[in-house]
Amino acid sequence: MIGLISATAAGAAARDRLAAAWPDRTRVYDGPVADAVRAAFAECEQLVCFLATGAVVRLIAPLLGDKVSDPGVVCVDEGGRFAVSLVGGHAGGANELAGEVAGLLGARPVVTTATDSVGLPGLDTLGFPVEGDVAAVSRALLDGEPVALEAELPWPLPPLPVADQGSYTIRSTDRAVEPAGHEVLLRPPSLVVGVGASRGAPADEVHDLVTGALREAGLSVKSLAELATVDAKAEEPGILQAARRLGVPVVTYSAEELARVDVPNPSGAPLAAVGTPSVAEAAALVRGGELLVPKRKSERADGRPAMATCAVVRRPGRGRLAVVGLGPGARDLLTPRAREELRRASVLVGLDQYVDQIRDLLRPGTRVLESGLGAEEERARTAVAEARRGQAVALIGSGDAGVYAMASPALAEASDDIDVVGVPGVTAALAAGAILGAPLGHDHVSISLSDLHTPWEVIERRVRAAAEADLVVTFYNPRSRGRDWQLPKALAILAGHREPSTPVGVVRNASRADESSRLTTLSALDPAIVDMMTVVTVGNTATREIAGRMVTPRGYRWQGES
C-alpha cells in the first residue's frame, strides 16, 4: 500500500490525482502532517509525500531502521515539477515509484542512486536474494574496476560490465556457501522441492524436512523456487503453511502427469492413495532437471511413522528471448515495456540501423550483435542460440515485431527450451493511419507487396480478395528500385472494384524527423513517389476525405452519398 500525505491545497490536488489513478494501491492520510507521516511509515510499504524534502527528512529521521525494512519514500514539490526518490530507492522501490508518480503527474523523476544514475542494474534489484558486500562490489562496477562474474549456475541476467577476473566477484550459485570478501552471491531460484504428505501432516514436519534436505545437500534455501506436489494435496494445510514460511508458492500436477515421470524410487503407497507411484520425486522432476536429493522421509522424535516425503531437483536456468517492436521510429512511440526489455537484455540482436535508434537506451555491458539488410533468418537463429546459452536476449524489429518482422522467423526457430516474450509495438499501418486521419475505422487488411518470400500469384490473389470484400488496404513494402511493377498492378486490381475518386493515403517515414504524407485518389496516385519507406493506404467504397483527412466510417451509412 502507498500512503499519500499532503499539507497544502496544491499538494492535495496532486495527491487526489494519484489516489484516483491508483484506487487499489493508495491510502490517503489526513490530519496533522507529522502524525500522518508516522502512521503511513508504520503501515505502508511506500509513501508519497507532497512536501518539501527537508520537512520529510526531519519527520522520518527518527523512524528510520535499515534500508531493507524501511518503506520507499518519494517527495513531490509544491509545483508538481519533481518526484524525488528520498529513501528506499532499491529495497523500498522508491526509484521505480518516482518514475511512476512523475509519469502520472507530468513531473520529472529525480533518482540519485549511483547505479541507477549511470544505467547500471543494482545488484539488489535483479529479483534474486543477494548476499555479501553489495556496496563494495557496486562501487567497483561504478569505478570501472575489474569485477568477475562466476556463473556456477548460469542464469539469464541483465547486462553487467564484468571481466574474466578481478579482485571483486559476483557469483551466481545455489550452494550454501558464505560470501568471501569483496564478493556478492546471487541466489537464482533454481531449486524445486517435491513434497508428499499424509493427510494432517504438521507444517513443522514438512518445513523441517525441506530445510533439512537442503542443508544436508549443501544447498541454500534462498534458491528455493517452489514446493511441488500432486493435485490431491493442493489444499493440504501442512504443505501450504510450510510454503508460506519458506516464502515460495505451491505448484501442483495431476496424478496422470506424475505417473508418466520416470523416478528412481516408485512406491505402491502413493499409487494406492492418490493414483501415482511417486509424488515427491515425480513432482520435482516433472519439468525436468537434475535430481540432487532422492526421496527421503521425515523423522519424528516419538518414533511414529513419517507423514511427509521430499525430493530436491535443480532446474537449469532457462534463457529468455524478448522479441521487441520498436515502433515506427519516434522515441515517444517506443513503449515503456520495450524500454524495460532493452535494459533487461544482456544480448541485443538486430538490424544495424534499428540498433542505432536505441543504442543510447542500452545498459553498459550489453553485447550487441548487429547485421545488415537481408539477414533476418540469421538474426533469428542467432537470437535463439544466445537464449539457449542461458542469456537474456532482446531481438528487435521496427513497428510491431510480429507484423512483417522478426517474431515469425524467431518463433519458427525457438522450441520450448527457452522462455519467449513478445513486446508489441506501433506498426506502420497504425502510425500512418494516425497521420492520415482515421482510414482504418472499419474492417481493413495489410498486404506486403514484396515477392521475395511470397510468390506474386499468392499476393495477387490476396489483393483481389481484399478488393472484392471492400476492405481498406494498407500496402507494406510497396515499391523498390528492383520491384517497380507490383504496386501499379495491385492498384489496378483495386480500381476494378472502387471508384477513381477513392481516397488513398501515402505516408513516408511515419513519425520520424523527415516524415511526409499526402492524400490523393486511386486514379491520381503516382507510384513513382512511393518507396520502401512508404506505406500506402487505399480506402474502401465508404472512405471519404473530410477537411483534408482520410476517414472510413465505422458503419456504412455514408455508402452511396456524394
From the structure above, extract its key features:
562 residues; alpha/beta; Rossmann fold; Nucleotidyltransferase, domain 5; 28 strands
Structure description:
By secondary structure, this protein is of the alpha/beta class. The chain folds into five domains: 2-112, Rossmann fold (3-Layer(aba) Sandwich); 123-186, no CATH class; 192-314, CobE/GbiG C-terminal domain (Nucleotidyltransferase, domain 5), CATH 3.30.420.180; 320-426, Cobalt-precorrin-4 Transmethylase, domain 1, CATH 3.40.1010.10; 429-551, Methyltransferase, Cobalt-precorrin-4 Transmethylase, Domain 2 (2-Layer Sandwich), CATH 3.30.950.10. It is 30% helix and 25% strand. The longest helix has 14 residues, at 203-216. 41% of the residues are buried.
Total helical elements: 18
Which stretches are low in confidence, meaning pLDDT under 50 for 5 or more residues running? Answer: none
Assigned CATH architecture of the largest domain: 2-Layer Sandwich
Mean pLDDT: 90
Q: Tell me the overall shape.
A: globular
CATH class of the largest domain: Alpha Beta
Oligomer: single chain
How many domains would you count in the coordinates?
Answer: 5
Helix content bin:
25-40%
Biggest sheet strand order reads: 2-1-3-4-5-6
Cα separation of the termini: 58 Å
Strand coverage percent? 15-25%
**Taking Cα atoms only, what radius of gyration do you get, to the nearest Å?**
30 Å
Stated plainly, the CATH topology of the largest domain is called Nucleotidyltransferase, domain 5
For CATH, the homologous superfamily of the largest domain is named as: CobE/GbiG C-terminal domain
Q: Outline the biggest β-sheet.
A: 6 strands, mixed
